[in-house]
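User: quick one
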Amino acid sequence: MKHTLSILLQNEAGALARVAGLFAARHVNIDTLTVAPTHEPAISHLTVVIHGGEATLEQIVRQTRKLVDVISVRSLGQLCDVGYLAGEAVRSNAHGHADNHGKWQQSV
Amino acid sequence: MTGADVVVRVLADEGVEVLFGYSGGAILPVYDAVFRHNAEHGNGDGRDAMPLVVPANEQGAGFMASGYARASGKVGVVVVTSGPGATNTVTPVRDAMADSIPMVVICGQVPTASLGSDAFQEAPVSNIMGACAKHVFLVTDPGQLEATVRTAFEIARSGRPGPVVVDIPKDVQNAKLSYDGNCRLPIPGYRARLRAVEQARLGDDACAAFFAALAQARRPLIYAGGGVIAGAAAPALRAFVDAFGVPVTTTLMGLGGFDTTHPLALHMLGMHGTAYANYAVEDCDFLLALGARFDDRVAGAPGKFAPCARFIAQIDIDPAEVGKVKRVHWHHVGPLAAALERLTAHGRAHGTRLSLADWQAHVARLKRDHAMNYDRASPLVQPQAVIEAINRITQGRAIVGTGVGQHQMWAAQYFDFRAPRQWLTSGSMGTMGFGLPAAIGAQFARPDALVIDIDGDGSIRMNLGELETVTTCGLPLKVVLLNNGGDGMVRQWQKLYFGQRFAGSDKSLRRKDFVKAAEADGFEWVRRLADKAALESTISEFLAFDGPAFLEVMIDPEAGVYPMVGPGASYAQMVTGDFIAAREGDSTVMEAAPVDSMF
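Assistant: Done. Structure below.
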């Protein structure tokens, strides 16, 4: 089963490598990975597609949330068609997700 | 002031009492700043404000910091140079991560202009450490240096503790900076998640659900892990047990989290746990996991672990551990001490009384009928007898470090642990060579305590250079080497599973003279013991010696570690060996398991 994760990440040295490295170390294959800027220059938006069961998904989401420079992780649910994924559904979802930045920044 | 001065100032502000590290080109500015700091801030008693303990190898420094952190609960600090200095600390960093030990590692790095140029003593530290630390920072902007070092301490000690690496290029150490005194890096995601977990409190409904299930149970058992120690929850656990009378077994990492001499203590469970603890796990109908993660050395066959438990409850600080290995029926993510205090208060307020007299009597019978035992009649010195003899004198109050292997398991099984932070062992990573440097670090944390390193001849070889560090620092450390002429635990597995083909594990023909080695490194009290009759008197003389002492005991090379639950096996398949009574119907010989299905 394919799953899509939307991850907001602080734009620090090595941050992307730590996310990718975590997936590799936990034996979760990344099918596709997209990195995009957000309106906040210090924050990047990652869209990751993986495949695996529900337990795999739940565990990798929780482990990703332990990475210090990860701001938030959301599972966008199962999608069977990867082509569809990279399209509108993800983009609109991620946009709403990114609107939360202000809150995170103020809360620190 | 320079960047290096800023680093040392933050260390001082964070309350760092001792540094463990080895100098080198790319970290020299920080070493110089430490020297100047100590010259300016002398204690007046001739001792440095921030003494620098120099090991033989950076791995030793890492394990010293780990031992210091384990014995004190404070952050252990390592300062090493770039390239090999940093890569030599990879093993201690991964070890600290796996055992949730707070550490900060400051690494020198080649100047920013040379990064990525294959410069002399350059290594991609942030890539390497990123894979095994809780977090790693590469500081390329001098303006961020102070905030980064301070934030590293915050991350290391908060939530589930762990090691944080700060990689500092030499030009950043030499930059001209001013000191703020408060600045931190923004880490909004981490802090928000941390706040959510730390503020999580058990509600009345959750407490009621917990006690409703507990009230149904006839045979409840607490399975307590290292989280009890990391979360300073031992007093809260004791209060819970005093209130409700639930027996406790601990993991290897949890030893000391509950006084092992308490009538309701079942000592350690798992692969080499006590038979009575493992039988209690088989028999329990309610299991409460506290800061424990159902690791494969405890639940080798998760589906068959605690098979009669109709209800499993779990409390942990790390959301990722809930339900990771074993499905649970009730859980709480938050600080353990607060959760246990809340449960105890709720139970008391509602007049909860459990009738556990039958179960407590059952547990007492298990402890009596399946007590730990070994070959007491053998003419050879048995390793278990050595631990027992030491324990008779130390009464469960010594701080004990170990390497990894059979000696580690005998020490875990036969020592009493009255309080937390007395037991320093590489639990998850299982790193041979851990014991001696960890004990050195612990002696710095607890200068007046009796610190003993129980080591094996394989393990101690790995960091033997640190014997000299003991005498250089004038530490009254006691080193016990249980010598069985090889890698005993490997040999035990080869005996059981590989047709007695002892590939690479036999060291009986090696020429190493450990007594001469200890003497050469300046140990004043050094003895080799092979005579069983002299055991008690030698041990008491050894422990009474006022200074560093080294005792090599030539033990029965065929002594095995029992009980044993084979890898991937269930507790029902536990083998108790020749000297511990098994329950009727249980096997006493190890069933042959396919070697390709185990680890």
